[in-house]
Amino acid sequence: xxxxxxxxxFSIQVDDxxxxxxxxxxxxxxxxxxxxxxxxKLGDYLLDSRFVFERKTLKDLVxxxxxGRLFQQALRLSATKLQPALIxxxxxxxxxxxxxxxxxxxxxxxxxxxxxxxPLLRARTPTETVNTMLFAARQGRTVATGALPRHGYRPxxxxxxxxxxxxxxxxxxxxxxxxLIERFGSIEAVVDADSEELQSVxxxxxxxxxxxxxxxEEPRREYRLS
Length: 226
What we know:
Layout: E1 10-15, H1 22-29, E2 33-38, E3 45-47, E4 51-57, H2 58-66, H3 69-79, E5 83-89, H4 102-115, E6 120-123, H5 126-144, H6 158-166, H7 174-184, H8 187-192, H9 195-198, H10 206-216
Parallel strand pairs: 1-2, 4-5, 5-6
Antiparallel strand pairs: 1-3, 3-4
Helix pairs in contact: 1-5, 6-7
C-alpha cells in the first residue's frame, strides 16, 4: 500500500466488534492511519471524522438480507450527517452455496444504493478494503479544499436529509415525507412502523402502507443458507 508519511496519517475509529477481523491488523500496519478502537453507534469504521463505512463480506451481505438487517442499516447510514458507504468485500466464488438467487441480491443492492442513497464500494480482499478507505480519505481532503468539483444535490440539515431519504420510498413525495417525520419523528421509527401505524398518516392507505413495508422488509422465508 502507498501509505505516505506518518505525519499525514488519517484518524480512523474501528468498532470493537471488528477486533477479530483482518482489516484492523492491516490498518495498524499501515502508515496511512492512526487507529483507535471503540464501540461505534453506526458502521464499522469512522474515518477522518467525515466518512462512516459499513464493511460486509459477500457472505455477510446474504446473511444481512435474510435476517432483515441490511435495509435497517442502510437507512440509518442514510440519515447520518457523515458521508456513508457500504464496502462489499469478496469475489463471486464467495456466493457459492449461499442458497439465494442473484436477482434477490441485486434487488437488495439496488434498494440500498438508489433508494437509501448509500454508495456501494467493491473490494476483493481486506487489503483492498483498507486501500479503498485510504483513497476515500485522501480524495475527501482534496474535495474539501475545493480542488475537485462537487456536483449533485446534497440536502443540508438533519430534517432536510430525512425528507430527502423518505422521498426515495415508493409513493412518498414531499408532503407525505413531512407527515411521516411529524408523526414518527425519525426515519428509524418510520422503518419500524407496522402497516396500521403507517395508515395513521394522512394520505397513506392500506396499499401504500404495504408497499412501504415491502420496501424495507425482506421476505426471509424464501431464502435458506446451506
